Amino acid sequence: MKNYLKKIENKLRDHLKLEELIIVDNTHLHTKHKSFVPGKLHLHVKIKSQYLGSISKISAQRLVMKALDEDLKTSIHALEISINK
């Protein structure tokens, strides 16, 4: 699991200008939800970025989603994105 989260971190750092990045795995909070899919993650990415903070929230979130496009199709069920300057 830690290797996979490191892979996500590397993808985000490679594609975006970030000052700080924290990835929180909240999958354990969703195991009793009706839509829960074993093997798919619920992640919260907390990003500090002057660049992403300077563009519209929608544009910033699209860039994050684009960087994780393949993972969203295969391994990530839910992605919460928090962006600060």
Query: Could you tell me the mean pLDDT?
Result: 92
> What class do helices, strands and sheet pairing give?
alpha+beta
Helix content: 40-55%
Cα(first) to Cα(last) distance is 29 Å
Total beta strands:
3
Helical run tally: 4
Q: Tell me the β content.
A: 25-35%
Would you identify the regions where 5 or more consecutive residues have pLDDT less than 50? none
From the alpha-carbon coordinates, what is the Rg to the nearest angstrom? 13 Å
**What's the shape?**
globular
The biggest beta sheet is recorded as: 3 strands, mixed
SSE order: HEEHHHE
Biggest sheet strand order reads 1-2-3
Fold and architecture overview:
There is one protein chain. This protein is an alpha+beta fold and about 80 residues long. The chain is built from four helices and three strands, in the order αββαααβ. It has helices at about 1-15, 50-55, 55-65, 70-75; strands spanning about 20-25, 40-50, 75-85. Strands 1-2-3 form a three-stranded mixed sheet. The longest helix is centred in the N-terminal third of the chain and has 14 residues, at about 1-15. It is globular. It starts with a helix and ends with a strand. The model has no long low-confidence stretch (mean pLDDT about 90).
Structure summary:
With 85 residues, this protein is of the alpha+beta class. It has helices spanning 2-15, 50-54, 57-67, 69-74, and strands spanning 20-25, 41-48, 76-84.
Name the features.
single chain, 85 residues, alpha+beta, 3-stranded mixed sheet, 27% strand, globular
Write the layout of secondary structure elements.
Layout: H1 2-15, E1 20-25, E2 41-48, H2 50-54, H3 57-67, H4 69-74, E3 76-84
Parallel strand pairs: 2-3
Antiparallel strand pairs: 1-2
